[in-house]
Specification:
The protein is α+β, with helices and mostly antiparallel strands and 144 residues long. It has a single domain, classed as START domain (Alpha-D-Glucose-1,6-Bisphosphate, Chain A, domain 4, 2-Layer Sandwich). Helix content is 26%, strand content 38%. The chain is built from three helices and seven strands, in the order βααββββββα. It has helices at 14-22, 24-30, 108-129; strands at 2-10, 34-37, 44-49, 52-62, 66-71, 84-92, 97-106. Helix 1 (14-22) packs across helix 2. The longest helix is centred in the C-terminal third of the chain and has 22 residues, at 108-129.
Length: 144
C-alpha cells in the first residue's frame, strides 16, 4: 500500500479550518457536491465528489487539531468504501493554520488519481477556509 502527503497553509484559525472538515456546509464549500457527516468516532463520512460516492467513517476527531477518516468508494472493487485512511493535522502558525494531509493505505494504482484530486481540492480549502468562495468545482477524475 502507498500514501500521498501534502500540506497547505490557510489564513484562518485551526478552529475555523476544523469546521471545513467536520460539517456538511464546510465540506461542500471546498470538496464535493453533497456531504453527510457525523464527526464522532465511528460516525458517518459520506461525500459525493464528481458523481463518485466517497464513503467511510470518522476514526478520530480531536478538536481543533486532527481529523482522521476512512475513505473509499461505494461499489468500487479497486478502493472499496472505508479501505484507505485520510488524516488532517491542523497546526497553528503565525498567520493561521498549517494543514498536513496524509492519505494512506492506497493501492499503487490509486495514488496518481488521488494525488490529482488532492491537487485540485487542497487549494480550494485554502480559499474556503479563509472565508472566500471557492466557486463551482469542475474537477473530474483522471481517465484510466
Amino acid at each position: 500500500m502507498a500514501e500521498f502527503r501534502d500540506f497547505i497553509e490557510i489564513a484562518a484559525s485551526p478552529e475555523t479550518v476544523f469546521e471545513y472538515l467536520t460539517t456538511n456546509e464546510g465540506m461542500t464549500a471546498w470538496m464535493g457536491q453533497y456531504a453527510d457527516l457525523d464527526p464522532t468516532p465511528g460516525g458517518r463520512f459520506a461525500v459525493d465528489i464528481a458523481g463518485h460516492p466517497v464513503r467511510g467513517e470518522f476514526l478520530q476527531v480531536e478538536h481543533p487539531s486532527r481529523v482522521v477518516v476512512s475513505w473509499g468508494f461505494a461499489g468500487s472493487e479497486d478502493l472499496p468504501a472505508g479501505t484507505s485512511t485520510v488524516e488532517f493535522r491542523l497546526s497553528r502558525t503565525g498567520v493561521g493554520t498549517r494543514v498536513d494531509l496524509c492519505h494512506s493505505d492506497l493501492p499503487e494504482t490509486e495514488v496518481r488519481g488521488h494525488a490529482d484530486g488532492w491537487a485540485n481540492f487542497l487549494p480550494r480549502l485554502v480559499i474556503a477556509g479563509a472565508g472566500g468562495n471557492a466557486g463551482p468545482d469542475a474537477w473530474l477524475p483522471l481517465a484510466d
